[in-house]
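User: Predict the structure for this protein chain, please.
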Amino acid sequence: MTRVKVCGITNSEDAMRAVDLGTDALGFIFYPKSPRNILPADAAEIIRGLPPFVASVGVFVDAPSKQIEAIVSECGLTAVQLHGSETPDFCGRFRVKTIKAFRVKDARLPPEIDRYRTDAILLDTYREGMAGGTGETFSWDVAVEAKRYGRVILAGGLTCENIRNAIETVRPYAVDVSSGVEIEPGRKDPKKLTQFVTRAKERPLS
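Assistant: Here is the predicted structure, written as structure tokens:
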């Protein structure tokens, strides 16, 4: 069964609702330019209330390794997700699981993807000037191709309406949603969140 990560968590209410629905991981964005940015102290408080088998993922964009390590320690993060121009060497520095994000442009895999040996790769849609969270899809054939490089987390424009098609097309390790289940940046819509997780967790047709 495909795992589900709900990203851009900024409050306990959304976090607990996602957990109760069966979400496998929650994402906390530590990037000041993001409208979903959260302070480490606030994230730590939410994470302390999570059940033991729910992963907490910190999202960073070209942050210094010492800053990332400090936030991992303060918050008790179980994984880091790197959305910038981090090198393969940089991605190998952390004691927790590491996810490297790549932005797909022109229906092509980034040529540097084969240089990375992280625990998973996340594919999102390229848009000039944005590190992620575009709310736009890309060609899922690219995600199928990327599976030869490791576990694929599919992101980019996923919604209640297209999640089943996305999973049946790609069969990814996990899916990642943020804007597709929001009322506004950082605030989740209970109805959309429920529909998304329920549909993502349905058994595949074949």
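Residues 3-200 form a domain with the TIM Barrel fold (CATH 3.20.20.70).
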